[in-house]
Amino acid sequence: MDSLHRHSVLVEDGKVKEVEAEAVIIGGMVLDIHATPSVPANPRTTTPGKVNYMLGGVARNVAECMSKLGTRLHLISAVGLDMPGNLLLEHWKSAGQSLEGIQRCQEIETAVVSNIFDVKGELAAAVASVEAIEKFLTPEWIQKFDYKIGSAPVVMVDANLSPPALEASCRMAAEFGVPVWFEPVSVVKSKRVVSAVKHITFASPNEDELIAMANALSSGDLFRSIEKNNKTIKFSTQSLFHMLNPAIWVLLEKGIKVVIVTLGPDGVFLCSKGVPRFLKNDSKRSNPHGSNSDLYVSINSNCPPNRFCKAPMVEGSSKMFAVHFPALPASVVRLTGAGDCLVGGTLASICAGLDIVQSLAVGIASAKAAVESETNAPSAFSMAKITGDAKSVYFASKMLSCQSML
């Protein structure tokens, strides 16, 4: 994992320049409009409630979460010279973040998503106007920041990118030996994984996105989502894993190294072919955490590293390494930022030098903080609370019965 934390040398105009490693996040900056009724809504009429503007976009949410956990990063995106674009950029600039990677021009209409929630705070319907991300976040624009990608500890791409931009981003990172995290965004957009699958290190689908990705990669309609409409049926963790196992195997067989399946209240599955190399926390290396020492020290002292390292498999074996992480109980305010903060917390921890099990525990703790917040990413994280929640998840995580390749 030495490539995760290196500094690099950039040759620019014949001059040698030191570049500090920053995580690179590529994807959408979106203005979310959240409409929440105060009473159950009736069709074809207005309903009293609250309408709020929220700073959103998967890439932006992930980047904000990482930044608030102390990670240095570079965001590559596109916004317009309009009201939504101004709101997004003003906040990003006020947080001390660079605007260098964010393309702006008159032709861009900033991405906006209008979300309608039910009285419980769960998403009931949404309309997305995000075409500008596909149109203007081009391979050519992303290529301008190849020096950032080449020195990054990790690159995250969200599936708002067009397939050519997605493929170019992932290929560029892979050529530099930089791990790539693919965030599927939605069931429809998750199928874009096909264009870049051979370059992807991590993927973080929910159950429905997993099925869609497996079907797209199989060029067929082989897999079906698990029916959970009958609330009297409660699947055990092992039976849920058994049902999802064939679809997970498709992603692993196509080259994705680590599949992280988010299950809502059922927790998270961490899966790979054999024991992933990201399982080991090499705490003996000098400065393993870059500039993010607080997170590294706090988690490492409370969640002893290398918990499952003695699993009797090697990376790429014909058996699946699988660990289940429970969800944390939370006082839910809003669910929209949970998945993005799970990814952001996990990536921040990987960048800090923590192993994947420690990192995912932090991700789940970050997701809990997000659902208890009014905004997509909390205004601030309490390191003590993140550490305490991560510790609870870490020690409750369990290896599942390893499955042979089908």
TrEMBL record:
InterPro entries the record matches: Carboh/pur_kinase_PfkB_CS, PfkB_dom, Ribokinase-like
Cross-referenced Pfam families: PfkB (PF00294)
Signal peptide segment: none
GO CC annotations on file: cytoplasm
Annotated Carbohydrate kinase PfkB domain residues: 23-274, 321-374
Keyword annotations from UniProtKB, A to Z: Kinase, Metal-binding, Transferase
Cross-referenced PROSITE patterns: PFKB_KINASES_1
Protein known as: Carbohydrate kinase PfkB domain-containing protein
Highest taxon in the source lineage: Eukaryota
GO molecular function: hydrolase activity, acting on glycosyl bonds; kinase activity; metal ion binding; pseudouridylate synthase activity
SUPFAM superfamilies to which the protein is assigned, alphabetical: Ribokinase-like
